[in-house]
Amino acid sequence: EIVAFLSARQDGRMSLIESRFDTRLLLSKTLRLARPRVRSAGIALTVDFGENLPFLWADELKLRRALLSLISNAIKFTPQSGRIVLAAKRTRDGGVAFAIEDTGIGMTADEIPLALLPFRQIEPAYSRRHQGLGLGLPLAKSLIDLHGGTLAIESQPQVGTKVTVTLPPERT
Prior knowledge:
35% of the residues lie in helices and 26% in strands. By secondary structure, the protein is α+β, with helices and mostly antiparallel strands. The chain has a 5-stranded mixed sheet with strand order 2-4-5-7-6, with helices on one face. A two-stranded antiparallel sheet has the order 1-3. The two termini are 29 Å apart.
């Protein structure tokens, strides 16, 4: 399913089914899906939603899928007793920014572009401790790109990763 999506996106066949919805409701639905995995992984989850979060004009399902993919990555690469923070706030220009920050294994600056490529994983196959196809970040980036947004990654090995998704003001 994910491979078909990425293929459709690359071929320009992917479209958005847009509607107006509450950002807080989007985040609530996303957290409802993520919390059981967070609990079973033994990770602390902190939520920090700014005041005056706007309503969004976007594809709610695709946006939720992008955020859930990013949270799932944070869970996968954060050790037990680690921490994940999900934050959302209005940007200065009137858009909205979501940040998922973890205390996981992190990446070097050279590894970040590789992690954004489909089917690429940072750890060599012979030492890989984390399962997956290497599609979480590319999928999320693709979905955010469809919305005219940006996905930025800051990371340090053994410190953690922060992924910030920003949607432009025309989405609010």
